[in-house]
Specification:
Layout (H helix, E strand, L loop, with lengths): L3 E7 L7 H19 L4 E7 L4 H10 L4 H11 L3 E9 L2 E2 L1 H9 L9 E8 L7 H12 L3 E2 L4 E4 H4 L9 H17 L16 H4 L4
Parallel strand pairs: 1-2, 1-3, 3-5, 5-6, 5-7
Antiparallel strand pairs: 3-4
């Protein structure tokens, strides 16, 4: 059986980053759930801070660098996506949105997606539903029902009024694993396969 590919995009800016920590826990929980279903999976984690300048340059020029092109192929060719962003002023980070903006509008159509976010206090958690989820709905991705928000207190062992962080991670991972297992494995996609060459743009034969 072909191993399923899970792309993990994390927009944390620091190292270490609570955003990366949440992304890693979501990915591992999803792999564990898939293993329990008899499905093998590989994970490729992309830290957007590593290609931040490339993202800006692609927005300005319309052409991705070699490194960014590899990132885009990893995301668009995956069987599922885990996308985690820090929240600033009650919405996704600028780097996260800029990366989404350079994706082809149809690149995530039908792809199962698990959303996650980090922030200072639990009151910011609703941003996942009124800001992040609509963004992926616009792209026709199939976001799972559960989204996972981690506040600062969650990492210190605190609790909230809904469910402890480990329970939310498990629930979201189980939903994503179920969506992955229900679909045939994807084939790698080159998002730039139909892009014209420089020679074609210059009108050269």
């Amino acid at each position: 059986m072909t191993a399923r590919r899970i792309a993990v995009v994390t927009a944390g800016l620091g190292r270490p980053s609570s955003t990366r920590l949440l992304a890693d826990r979501l990915a591992q929980a999803t792999v564990d759930e898939l293993t329990g279903m008899g499905v093998t999976a590989t994970v490729e984690t992309i830290e957007l801070r590593d290609v931040a300048h490339d993202v800006v340059n692609a927005m300005l020029t319309g052409f991705p660098s070699e490194a960014l092109g590899g990132v885009l192929r990893a995301v668009t060719g995956a069987d599922a996506l885990i996308a985690v962003t820090p929240l600033y002023t009650t919405t996704f980070s600028g780097l996260f949105k800029s990366f989404i903006d350079i994706l082809d509008k149809d690149a995530l159509t039908g792809m199962p997606v698990l959303l996650g976010a980090t922030g200072g206090t639990p009151r910011h958690s609703l941003a996942l539903e009124y800001a992040v989820r609509p963004l992926f709905t616009y792209l026709h991705a199939e976001t799972v029902t559960t989204s996972v928000f981690a506040a600062t207190d969650d990492w210190a062992g605190g609790t909230d009024t809904v469910a402890p962080l480990p329970a939310r991670i498990t629930r979201g991972a189980r939903e994503l694993a179920g969506a992955i297992a229900a679909r045939p494995a994807s084939r790698p996609v080159d998002p730039f396969a139909s892009a014209p060459s420089f020679a074609e743009l210059l009108g050269e034969s």
